[in-house]
Amino acid sequence: MKTMNVTKAEIVSTVAEAVGMTKIETEAVINGFIYAIHQALKNGKEVEIRGLGSLRIIDREPRKARNPKTGATIHLPKRRVPQFRPSKDLRKAVNQSNPDK
């Protein structure tokens, strides 16, 4: 099964058509939306979008890992990573979709 990625440009086109705005206006809104999410996460806040899911930052402890290409052991330092948790509505919609399309 081949995965088809949706690009930001395609999202801009779809949203512009759905709301009746130009692509330039829609792209500005989407860029502002992305900026607001970045800032909230950067400032330690959780972002919740009803019907879609929530984003938060989690701390990952340092650990040893293995480079799959060389087999060498590497050290991964403590780091903060974003985590997405889908909403019940999104999980339900995904499970009802037809994967063959």
Give a structural overview.
The protein has 101 residues and is of the alpha+beta class. The chain has one domain (8-96): IHF-like DNA-binding proteins (HU Protein, Chain A, Irregular). The protein has three helices and five strands; from the N terminus they run H-H-E-E-E-E-E-H. The strands form two sheets. Strands 1-2-5 form a three-stranded antiparallel β-sheet. Strands 3-4 form a two-stranded antiparallel ribbon. A hairpin with a 3-residue loop joins strand 1 (47-49) and strand 2 (53-60). Helix 1 (8-19) packs across helix 2 (23-42). The mean pLDDT is 93.
Widest sheet, order of strands = 1-2-5
Can you give the mean pLDDT?
Answer: 93
| Strand count | 5
Query: Helix and strand succession?
Result: HHEEEEEH
Shape: extended
> What would the CATH topology be?
HU Protein, Chain A
How would you sum up the major sheet?
3 strands, antiparallel
- Give the strand content: 25-35%
Overall CATH architecture: Irregular
Number of helices: 3
Helix content: 40-55%
Helix vs. strand class: alpha+beta
- Give unreliable regions as ranges: none
Task: Summarize this entry quickly.
The protein has three helices and five strands; from the N terminus they run ααβββββα. The protein has a single domain, classed as HU Protein, Chain A. By secondary structure, it is an alpha+beta fold.
